[in-house]
Design brief:
five-stranded mixed beta sheet, globular, binds 5'-O-[(R)-(carboxyoxy)(hydroxy)phosphoryl]adenosine, binds zinc ion
Length: about 375
């Protein structure tokens, strides 16, 4: 069944539309309202429960989404001055269909489908990674098409060529861990809680990035690899920093290792961050050279990293590129990016059937 109605058809050719969007792909429950391309509200509820487990526990994440989704949607409506008792202003419901944790995605998907059915409004299925890219179109200044986007999150690391708000292709991606995982796994090796990325960022600001040299992987083309870096850091710490060749054989005692980490935490974090940032930006420079595209964006949770942001802006300055980074609240997972993507899909008439399901993995 195609969920379209007369309201949909009459609005398709105009720029006017109010979109209610839901994001629940991982451990943030979020709802947002976008009207005519402007974000009116973007409410995000995080899930503290995972900290004690050192990573996201899927079952606990879906339960927390169930608890959070109604209050989060109410808060987003209220902030946008839309009465919970009169949703007639809403023209369409957008939701994250994929990729993500299936149990988490299902909560947002079912909520969106039920609301679309109850309000008799069209449904818009959004690809989470495409939405990270389109977050760059939320505020001015905006990139011109085509633009390049380095999308760096907890589950993905991609270089994307974006031709229009609804057309993009991946030209490079990680062959193993994502950049966010590299941050989080390094932090775990240092005994820091999940998610460790923001903590590495915090300690790195106080340290010397040149103190320890971690290897840069040699991966052909525009693809990335981070698993070798993780192993190098593991061996480095097992040797309590006494070896720069990352030998597996010699192991420091746990006390020696912990003492080394405590005494050098800032420099270790700065050196790890420096290497992750150089791996990312060296590939991005290569993508600029190959494509000749000069409008370049960052996206995804790792684009909140201050070392990456600074180095990215510096790269733009020295290479004469136009650089763009979404506002902080649109970098990590949020429904604002789903709402703006939903808005452009609405204008393009790209609606989903009510039988649509969530999928953990998805093609572009
Ligand atoms: O995009 P995102 O919120 O969720 C996914 O779609 O995965 O990205 C989450 C990732 C986590 O790995 C987290 O550690 C990382 O983004 N992250 C950071 C920072 N803030 C979030 N990594 C480094 N520095 C940060 N400031
Ligand atoms: Zn994300």
């Amino acid at each position: 069944m195609q969920n379209s109605n007369s309201k949909t058809n009459s609005l398709k050719s105009s720029d006017h539309a109010t979109i209610l969007a839901i994001e629940s792909s991982c451990d943030e429950t979020s709802a947002a309202i976008c009207r005519d391309g402007k974000i009116l509200s973007n409410v995000i509820a995080g899930q503290k429960i995972h900290e004690q487990y050192g990573g996201v526990v899927p079952e606990l994440a879906s339960r927390a989404h169930m608890q959070n989704i109604v209050p989060v949607v109410h808060a987003a409506l209220e902030k946008a001055n839309i009465s919970v008792h009169d949703l007639s202003d809403i023209d369409a419901i957008a939701f994250t269909q994929s990729p993500g944790l299936i149990g988490s995605l299902l909560v947002g998907t079912q909520f969106a489908k039920s609301l679309a059915l109850a309000l008799d409004r069209p449904l818009i299925a959004v690809h989470h990674m495409q939405a990270h890219v389109i977050a760059n179109l939320i505020d001015d200044p905006r990139p011109s098409f085509p633009f390049l986007c380095l999308t760096v999150s907890g589950g993905h690391t991609q270089i994307v060529v974006c031709e229009s708000p609804t057309q993009m292709k991946v030209i490079g991606e990680t062959i193993d861990d994502a950049a966010g995982e590299a941050f989080d796994k390094s932090a775990k090796l240092l005994g820091l809680p999940y998610p460790g990325g923001p903590l590495i960022d915090k300690y790195a600001a106080l340290g010397n990035p040149m103190r320890f040299k971690f290897p840069e992987p040699q991966v052909p083309g525009l693809d990335f690899s981070f698993s070798g870096l993780k192993t190098a850091i593991l061996y480095f710490l097992q040797n309590a920093g006494t070896s720069q060749v990352y030998k597996e054989e010699f192991k420091a005692t746990t006390e020696e290792k912990n003492k080394f980490i405590t005494e050098n935490l800032n420099d270790i974090c700065a050196s790890i961050q420096h290497r992750i940032v150089s791996i990312l930006l060296n590939k991005l420079k290569k993508a600029v050279a190959i494509t000749g595209i000069h409008d370049v964006c960052l996206a995804g949770g790792v684009s909140a990293n201050s070392g990456l942001r600074t180095a990215f802006i510096e790269m733009g300055r020295t290479q004469n590129l136009n650089t763009f980074i979404p506002a902080f609240e649109y970098c990590t997972d949020n429904a604002g990016m789903i709402a703006i993507t939903g808005y452009y899909k609405y204008l393009a008439g790209q609606f989903a059937d009510l039988s649509v399901g969530a999928t953990a993995r998805a093609e572009w």
